[in-house]
Amino acid sequence: MGDRSRTAKILGRGVLALALLLAWLWSFGGVWFLRGTPWGGWPAWLFAGTSLGVLLVSRRAAVAWVLLSFLGVSIWFATLEPRNDRDWRPELAVAPTAEIDGDRVTVRNVRNFDFHAEEEFTPHYEDRSYDLARLDSLDAAFSYWGGNTRIAHTMLSFGFAGRDYLTLSVEVRRERGEGWGGLPGLYKQFEVIYVLGDERDLIRQRTNARGEDLYLYPIRADRDGIRAVFLETLRIVNELAERPDWYGTLERNCFTSLLRIFRAARPGSPPNPSLYVLMNGSVPALLYQLGRIDTDLPFEEAHRAFYMTDVARTFDDAPDFSQRLRAARTDAARLKGIAAP
After folding, report:
1. pLDDT category, 264, cuts 50, 70, 90?
2. Is residue 314 part of a domain?
């Protein structure tokens, strides 16, 4: 009994120490990312120095300091309010809205930029109308950068009778001159924007301007399901135009935002993402296992057939860019199916 009691005490102290360390680290991050202050990082280092001094004085005082700091940062965190009126980067400056009248949908501010390089583009926004009765396809795009295969930017593309395509890209709404990082995304440093754009814009931005590896997967879904997802997308778009919200590295990123849409549109349909929230690059394999990708090919062959970067570069200026992508995808899948043993 004595050994068990000692072990339990050691474990209990270890858990408490870990919890206090995590609370302190979270508080340190909160002080480091004090939004809009001209002081640079010195408040965080002052906080760290004060913490060390309190710890040297007394363990109990250190515990109290950590708890009070955590409470203070949490209160500050709760008071932060997102805004729609910052000095945004040009490609993120205009948010879309939608008007729905029966089966007719009018989307305002559809982005249709012409990207010449990552930071060089000709801006253009359009108002477009769509017929919900013609909405019949859904594609999921996964775009990888820097040679990694674990993390991807995810987008949805809605197709209307093979003629019109509208793409959704959930993005960090950065201000002019503002960088991006996963850590500040934990501390309400960025707002979120749901960009609705032409595929020639949003896909070519990734493939041609940024040199990313993009895969476009056809999703197996019925028309009612696609319609529900599309209407839920428009609902959130209009909501954000009225009430902006924060981007969250974990809870509201490009992938988890799409999960929210699917869950709201078709409750219980998406799987529990678990680690896929962080490592969403493996989601296509999961979707294939669940039968959500519309193909009869083995996954590795489908994965290669649905690689669109080279195709997007080939048909860079084609007015029927979206149709060319899908024709090339169909041809690649057909040829791989013929070649399969």
Report:
1. confident
2. yes
Question: What whole-number distance in Å separates Cα of residue 220 and Cα of residue 91?
Answer: 31
Round to whole Å and give the CA distance between 182 and 15. Answer: 26
Pairing mode of beta strands 114-117, 153-160? unpaired
Extract the tokens encoding 271.
């799987």
Q: Cα–Cα distance between 62 and 42 in angstroms, integer?
A: 21
- Cβ–Cβ < 8 Å for 295, 333: yes
Which structural domain, as residue segments, surrounds residue 137?
A: 90-339
Cβ neighbourhood burial of 63 (10 Å; 0-12, 13-18, 19+)? middle
Domain shared by 163 and 286, yes or no: yes
The CA distances from residue 274 to 189, 280, 285, in Å, are 24, 10, 15
For the segment 140-187, what is each residue's pLDDT rounded down to a tens digit? 999 999 989 899 999 999 999 999 999 999 999 999 988 877 778 788
Encode 302-318: b = buried (16+ Cβ within 10 Å), e = exposed. Answer: bbebbbbbebbeebeee
What gap in Å lies between CA 323 and CA 5, rounded to an integer?
Answer: 70
SS3 180: coil
Would you state the pLDDT for residue 260? 84
84 is a domain residue? no
The C-alpha atoms of residue 30 and residue 256 are separated, in whole angstroms, by 23
Residues 93-102 as b/e (b if ≥16 CB within 10 A, e otherwise) read bbbbbbeeee
pLDDT in tens, 33-89: 775 554 456 788 888 888 888 888 888 888 899 999 999 888 888 888 999 999 999
Q: Which of 313, 130, 153 is nearest to 226 (CA)?
A: 130
Can you give the pTM of this predicted structure? 0.87
Which letter does DSSP use for residue 150 in this model?
S
Q: Are residues 94 and 215 in the same domain?
A: yes
Residue 85 lies inside a defined structural domain of this protein: no
Q: In 3-state terms, what secondary structure has residue 247?
A: coil
Q: Crossing angle of helices 42-57/2-32, nearest 10°? A: 150
Cβ(245)–Cβ(217) under 8 Å? no
Per DSSP, the three-state class of 310 is: helix
